[in-house]
Amino acid sequence: MFEIQKYLKGENYQKTLKRFLDIFLSLFFIIFFFPISLITAILIKIDSSGPILADVPERIGENGKKFKMYKFRSMITNAHYLLRKDPKFKKLFEEYKRSSYKLKEDPRITKIGKFLRRHSIDEIPQFFNVLRGEMSIVGPRAYYPDELDHQLKKYPKTKKLVKKVLSVKPGITGLWQVSGRSEVNFDKRIEIDANYVDNISLWNDLKIILKTPLIMINGKGAI
Predict the structure, then answer these.
(1) What pLDDT is recorded for position 66?
(2) With pLDDT > 90 as the criterion, what percentage of the chain qualifies?
(3) How many domains does the chain have?
(4) Are the beta carbons of 53 and 70 closer than 8 angstroms?
(5) Terminal-residue alpha carbon distance, the chain
(6) Which three-class secondary structure state does DSSP give residue 160?
(7) Which of 41-50, 175-184, 209-218 is the most confident on average?
């Protein structure tokens, strides 16, 4: 019994069973969500000009390694660049940084994009990141490099927690997502995700996975 239990939590779980579940579940969800993905791609092209997938910079993954996160485009083309470089978005960018890199009212979001983000449909392509080994089904949030730098300056006491969070793969869903999503500020979010890392196990992952559909449906805390 002890031999089995040691593979259900901690580092042993991460290296064996968790990766197996990631591959199995991501393949399942890619097939399951295929009709929704197809409809989403068509609606994105009808709603606004630009690519189907979001044109965003790389994120920080496990052990600080950068990777390209796949998401359905929910904003205007070059939205990430325009927010940081276009003078007309200067005030919006300052608000963005003050609000833990989230905006309740973002003029860059398209009509269909608002619905996609509210119900996390824009995140379906991330299952391909899971297959590639860059993400996990369950894990901490993946940050942009400039976002993480700014937040560490704003919340310097979180440095140790950030290091712990970056020791594992980021997830499509996670403890902070089912604990408030975008309503949670960075310092609290990092604390929640560090707690997840400390207590990583099959049981905790399954609880988070089971809670996620309800969060997707009601859109609570989404921006």
Answers:
(1) 96
(2) 61
(3) 1
(4) yes
(5) 44
(6) helix
(7) 41-50
Distances (CA, A) of 152 to 115, 148, 168, 180, 195: 31, 6, 18, 21, 18
Residue 28 domain flag: yes
Do the domain assignments include residue 70?
yes
Return the amino acid letter for 104. K
Among 171, 165, 168, CA closest to 186: 165
Residue 220: predicted pLDDT: 58
In the chain, % of residues over pLDDT 70:
91
**How many CB atoms are located within 10 Å of the residue 192 CB?**
21
* Sequential DSSP letters for 188-215: HHHHHHHHHHHT-BHHHHHHHHHHHHHH
CA angle at 101 for the pair 59 and 193, rounded to the nearest 5°: 65
User: Rounded to 5 degrees, what are φ and ψ at 143?
Assistant: -105, 155
Average pLDDT, rounded, for the chain: 88
Specify if 223 maps to a domain: no
Q: For residue 166, what are the domain limits?
A: 2-218
Instruction: Examine residue 156 and state whether it is found in any structural domain, yes or no.
Output: yes
